[in-house]
Design brief:
This is Cyclic nucleotide-binding domain-containing protein. The chain is low in regular secondary structure.
């Protein structure tokens, strides 16, 4: 499994992107809009 790190306010995925992976949030939270 590859570990990725994101900064506050980074966009992880946007509408229309192909779904080729899954994300597990270890720390913090995500906002869906």
């Amino acid at each position: 499994m590859k570990r990725l790190y994101f900064k506050p306010n980074d966009k992880v995925v946007k509408e229309g992107d192909l779904g080729d992976c899954a994300y597990i949030v270890e720390t913090g939270s995500l906002e869906v809009s």
